[in-house]
Amino acid sequence: MAEVRREEFDEEMERREYRRRRRIRNQIIAYIFAVLMLAALIGGIAFGIHKLITLINDKKQEQELQRQMEEMQNNQEDPGVVEAPQTPEEEPVVEEEKSHLDEIVDACIAEMPLEDKVTGLFIITPEVLTDTGVVVRAGDTTKEKLRECAIGGLIYSEQNMKSADQLKEMISNTKGWSKYPLFIAVEEEGGSVSRVAKSGLAENVGSMAKVGEAGDSVQAREKSNAIAAYLADYGFNLDFAPVADVLLEGNTTLADRSFGSIAENVSVMVSASVEGLQENGVSACLKHFPGLGSTLEDTGAGMAVCDKTLEDFQTTDFLAFQSGINVGADFVMVSHLSLPNITGDNTPASLSDKMITEILRGQMGFNSVVITDAMNMGAITEYYTADEAAVKALLAGADMILIPEDFQLARSGVLEAVNNGTLSEERIDESLRRIYRIKYKDKAEELSDDMMEDMPVDESGDTPEDPSGEAAGDPSGETPTDPSGEAPENNG
């Protein structure tokens, strides 16, 4: 009997132990489940916060773009924007005090002969300047021509670039021998149009199309930073980039040069690129206004016509240009695209007062330098002589003429237009002020008021780049070298 009770007792104990172990197991399972649920909850909250922030940022960007377009449309519709000045009964306008930069610029322009003023509106190649073959060095010919011709800037290509030392010396000598500060320009977009990188003197950062596909504005800025770093190291101060054209879906005319076909995305990439270039001392140039992304025709070969309306551009292409303008792009390049539904005829945009003065300046608020696309392209040369095209571009509101078909004819044509009253000297000065605000913006803090009296240009050859009165182009007191070279190209 005792044994039976003992067995029953043992069985009871085993049942209790089993129940205890089961409770412990269930508790462990419950704890694990609770931890997993808590982790999922935390992850969901984090994802939700991230999504909310993204939506807020997207909404802000959408609202900002919408605001810009509404302002542009209001400017177009509101005739009050271009009405005559205030009547005498209204309060007199108080003239704002000139900034130190404006004082420097005005002092420079005031001393310029008219021929120098006009010549300073052109950017040409070193071959056109020297009237020789391919230039790979800045030698005596370059020195002499720069004394005779106060050109506004020079644009270089792969043929001018043989080695790092050669390129640096050529640019340094060229800058030093000029009577006035020069724009030293190049097309360095990244990808297929990268003159320095394709010459083997820098690493190609890759196409902007891939950056646009990634939708990464940080990457766009970093790549432009990298481009500006090596350009500045060689002596360049103007990059004809970024491409702000918004591609029509399926259009391959610009290949890998555009950030893409989504206007909002292109806008973000363009503004980041402008900042990436200019924060490193290289002026950015938005191109090709008003946008070549919808045409399959090449302005280099002849007339290219786009039937888009102003409203079409305002909801696509203009978004990217406006974005670059808003962050302070120094230049906008105007293309030779014909826009009959906006201008009423086939006048190229580069020669159109409607496109440059009324829309780009008036509606979009661009107050810096407007430069034409290269004027030796078929869309210009097939219909205008070099002098006609240059005068028409300036009358339309452009500030600088890029690579005219015949530089000497274009320059003499502008001089004649000023002398006969077609263009006023004040109109030329207006463009020069925009140009020299860029050329002198980094020097405004360095130059004292006393130095301004010694600025350009007098018979002794003192120059704005060397206001202290030292020999132009020779800040060290030594004559720039012009070593003999192995390349068969011209010494310049």
Write a brief structural summary.
With 492 residues, the chain is an alpha/beta fold. Helix content is 49%, strand content 7%.
Structural write-up:
- There is one protein chain.
- The chain has 492 residues and is of the alpha/beta class.
- 49% of the residues lie in helices and 7% in strands.
- Strands 9-8-7-6-3-2-1-10 form an eight-stranded parallel β-sheet. A two-stranded antiparallel ribbon has the order 4-5.
- A hairpin with a 2-residue loop joins strand 4 and strand 5.
- Helix 2 crosses helix 18 and helix 10 (263-278) runs parallel beside helix 12.
- 43% of the residues are buried.
- Residues 76-88 and 457-491 have low confidence and may be disordered.
Principal-axis shape equals elongated
Helices, by number, come to 19
- Beta-strand content: 5-15%
SSE string: HHHEHHEHEEEHHHEHEHHEHHEHHEHHH
Main sheet: which strands, in order across?
9-8-7-6-3-2-1-10
Structural class: alpha/beta
Radius of gyration: 32 Å
Task: Report the biggest beta sheet as strand number plus sense, adding barrel if it closes.
Answer: 8 strands, parallel
Percent in helix: 40-55%
Give me the count of strands.
Answer: 10
- Give the averaged pLDDT, no decimals: 84
Termini separation (Å)?
Answer: 125 Å
Low-confidence stretches: 76-88, 457-491
Helix and strand arrangement:
Blueprint: H1 2-77, H2 100-110, H3 114-119, E1 122-124, H4 126-130, H5 140-148, E2 153-155, H6 164-177, E3 183-186, E4 188-190, E5 193-194, H7 195-198, H8 208-214, H9 217-234, E6 238-239, H10 263-278, E7 283-289, H11 310-314, H12 317-326, E8 331-334, H13 340-343, H14 353-363, E9 369-372, H15 378-381, H16 386-396, E10 401-402, H17 407-419, H18 425-439, H19 449-452
Helix pairs in contact: 2-18, 9-10, 10-12, 16-17
